[in-house]
Design a protein that fits this description.
The chain is mainly alpha-helical. The protein is built from 21 helices and 4 strands. The strands form 2 sheets. It has a two-stranded antiparallel ribbon with strand order 1-2. The chain has a two-stranded antiparallel sheet with strand order 3-4. α6 crosses α7 and α10 runs antiparallel to α11. The longest helix is centred in the C-terminal third of the chain and has 27 residues. The protein is globular and about 90 Å long.
């Protein structure tokens, strides 16, 4: 053991403050984080017990639970801790009556019944390998019921691929009846833009990610824009609340604590926080569509989601939904995309920018085409004059 680490441990044992030092993450060589004072297993256990006491005390209050306190617990480290607490607090926060249930219907008459069955059949990767064949069939049957019954309540609700991932998460925590009731509730609010006839509104939400990134890191936002990678990488993040791209179920539940207790656009804020956190990985590749999209599309499984949640909450507080929805408009006013040859900023120094652009391959090509066309027109007119 090095002298530095022995001194560090000795100070910890004596309860003395230890100076923090920067540490480079191996999964992101450019990302420097701060090493926090190490907590013992006893400290962690005591924090968890204290939080459990707070949660149980809240639950004992019945319907009088302050929503602000539920939200605070959901956003703090570890979220709501266990599914035992989630099955109570999720419903309480969204004012869903435990006794409520969706209207019974003939699920085979649902217009997207075939597609639902196909997606449910393909969701085996999220099922426990310990389940028997009979248990798997029973679980898939319950999932199919949750999906169709929650959507069939209103004729204007449409199934989308990814709805089954959200439904499965709620089914694991709440059981069939309550999951269907809560999914129906989410269709009126958090998932309303996704269950429309098309995903146009969802597409608009995805386009908010880069403008949000630009508020914190203009260089990274410009890099993504210049690569023309777009925001399609975030589609599965937003419409499944990250359930499709994460392997660990406990991490998924932890994120659902956040999404269920925050505004519907929270998945957009978390997506922006993930992109900002991975700046060096993104900017380490060539600035072109396929390379940048591949890095963005691949979500590492070991991301520090408690940190990312805090960062997303800070973005939400600094740029609330009423503000974020205006960001793309402002961006379009100052950025003019020139396909595959960068971006021109017309908000200042437009003359110098125009001259600078004239020396780019695109500018030279356009200038040459203009000169050749003008020369051809002049020759044609001159020849015509003498042919008369």
């Amino acid at each position: 053991m090095s002298k530095r680490s022995s001194v560090y441990d000795e100070k910890l044992a004596q309860g003395k403050p230890v100076a923090r030092e920067p540490v480079t993450r191996y999964d992101d060589p450019c990302h420097v984080v701060v090493r926090k004072r190490r907590r013992s297993a006893q400290d962690v256990a005591e924090r968890r017990l204290e939080k459990e006491r707070q949660i149980r005390k809240l639950i004992e209050q019945g319907d009088k639970i302050p929503l602000k306190e539920i939200r605070s617990l959901a956003l703090s480290e570890g979220g709501l801790l266990s599914n035992e607490y989630r099955k109570v607090l999720w419903l309480r926060y969204l004012a869903v009556d435990i006794e409520d249930s969706v209207t019974e219907c003939d699920i085979t008459e649902f217009r997207d019944y075939t597609q639902v069955c196909l997606d449910v059949h393909r969701c085996s990767s999220r099922l426990s390998p310990d389940l028997s064949s009979r248990e798997v069939l029973a679980l898939k049957s319950r999932l199919r019921n949750v999906i169709i019954k929650s959507l069939a309540e209103r004729p204007n609700r449409h199934y989308y691929q990814g709805y089954h991932d959200v439904s499965l998460t709620l089914l694991y925590v709440l059981g069939e009846r309550r999951a269907a009731t809560l999914m129906s509730c989410l269709c009126r609010a958090h998932l309303a833009s996704h269950v429309r006839e098309n995903l146009d509104e969802t597409s608009q939400q995805m386009k908010l990610i880069v403008p949000l990134v630009s508020q914190k890191n203009p260089e990274l936002a410009e890099f993504i824009l210049r690569s023309e990678a777009g925001t399609m990488f975030s589609l599965s993040w937003i419409i499944t609340w990250f359930a499709y791209v994460l392997d660990d179920e406990h991490t998924i539940y932890r994120l659902y604590d956040v999404f269920l207790t925050t505004p519907p656009l929270m998945p957009v804020y978390l997506s922006a926080a993930v992109v900002l956190y991975r700046k060096c990985q993104i900017m380490s590749v060539e600035c072109e569509l396929s390379s940048v999209h591949q890095v963005l599309h691949h979500l590492p499984q070991d991301l520090p989601f408690d940190l990312l949640i805090r960062n997303a909450v800070e973005l939400l507080e600094e740029f609330p939904p009423s503000v974020i929805k205006t960001l793309p408009v402002k961006q379009q006013e100052i950025i003019l995309q020139v396909s595959r040859f960068g971006y021109l900023d017309w908000s200042r120094n437009w003359a110098s920018k125009l001259l600078e652009y004239a020396n780019t391959p695109a500018g030279i090509a356009i200038s040459s085409s203009f000169l050749v066309g003008f020369a051809a027109l002049a020759i044609s007119a001159y020849s015509g004059r003498f042919s008369l």
